Amino acid sequence: MTTLTTGNGTGVGSAPAVSARDLSIGYDSRRHDSARDAVSGVTFDIAAGEVLGVIGETGSGKSTLALAVAGLAGTNHQGIPHISGGSLAVLGEPVRGITARHRDRLTLRVGFVPQDAGEHLLPHLTIGENIAAPIYARDRDFDQREAGAAVATLVDSVRLPLRVMNSFPHELSGGQRQRVAIARALILEPALLVADDPTSGIDVTARGPILDMVRELQQAHSFSALIVSHTIGEVRRFSDRVAIMHRGVIVGIGPVDEVLDSPQHEYVEGLARALRELRMADDLSAL
Q1: Cβ proximity of 39 and 65 under 8 Å
Q2: N or C, which end of the chain has less CB nearby within 10 Å?
Q3: CB neighbours (10 Å) of residue 77?
Q4: Are 112 and 186 in contact (CB under 8 A)?
Q5: What does each C-alpha distance from 281 to 64, 259, 268, 269, 276 come to in angstroms?
């Protein structure tokens, strides 16, 4: 890709891309007695260049964790959480109590793909303009030819034909729009990608290729990543390790097979059992 940012700083011996210690994250509530932490006392690291997959049932806290790691916690916007305890450092920057200026600097180095990101592209902009938007948000005077070259490179990288650059979002399929959203998140060559269920709402036949594409881009550019998913099968496809969340806590973390082969929590044991049953069904159907 065309150099647009300061680089990702990955490499052997590098400090963790993400470091959380006893981290709790909550939401403001008008009723004090109804307020609770959505994430409670989690501790983990994401090494430089590592992909951590996060899975869990609805309400487990995985999307809340993604928002915090993306540097958005504490922005006082509706539906955005705040860090209520412990510590979180992202790309070496302590996030709890971060100033607006430092947050702006940090988020330039973090690519974020929220849930259903492909459905929230700007409808009045072309695909090329949507992908280039972060460039001009950072620098309004950035050279248009250089920006166009960077966009074209990414469009090709996410396996879309270059002709879509002149299309509008409504002219693309859901899977294509999701690829555009991922390209937009990567246009500044971030050191860290945070993707919250990037295949949500996408036809099942398109999910695998999208995840394979993300993994290939990560391997090519060596950024670190936290990717929320809803199935072990997807996590196995793209991640180095998995963190399994249940009711706001991490109940298993490590390489996928190690976590499932030696479950330390009943929820993880249930996931392992379901996966074994699925494999048995697949084996029987192949007979």
Answers
A1: yes
A2: C
A3: 7
A4: no
A5: 34, 22, 20, 18, 9
240, HSE (Cβ side, Cα atoms, 13 Å): 15
In angstroms, rounded to a whole number, what is the distance separating the alpha carbons of residues 45 and 252? 13
**What CA–CA distance (Å, rounded) separates 205 from 37?**
36
Q: What is the pLDDT of residues 200-241, one digit of tens each?
A: 878 888 888 888 999 999 999 999 999 999 888 888 888 999
**Range 14-109+191-254 classified under CATH 2.40.50.140:** no
- β-pairing, 241-246 vs 249-254, is antiparallel
Q: In what order do the strands lie in the sheet with 18-26?
A: 37-46, 18-26, 82-90, 93-94
Coil, strand or helix: which one is 134? Answer: helix
Rounded Cα distance between 286 and 213, Å, is: 28
CB within 8 Å of 44: residues ≥ 6 apart: 18, 20, 52, 243, 250, 253
Helix, strand, coil % in the chain, rounded to nearest 5: 45, 20, 35
Rg (CA), the chain: 19
* Spans of the chain, pLDDT less than 70: 1-13, 30-35, 278, 280-287
Whole-angstrom Cα distance, residue 140 to residue 127?
A: 18
Q: Where in the chain is the domain with CATH 3.40.50.300?
A: 14-109+191-254
Torsion sign across C-alpha atoms 86, 91, 94, 99 = negative
- Joined tokens for residue 18: 């993400």
**8 A C-beta contact, residue 116 and residue 181:** no
| pLDDT for res 280 | 67
**Residue 112 · residue 80 · CB < 8 Å:** no
> What are the backbone angles phi and psi of residue 101, rounded to the nearest 5°?
-65, -45
Q: List the structure tokens of 182.
A: 């991922």
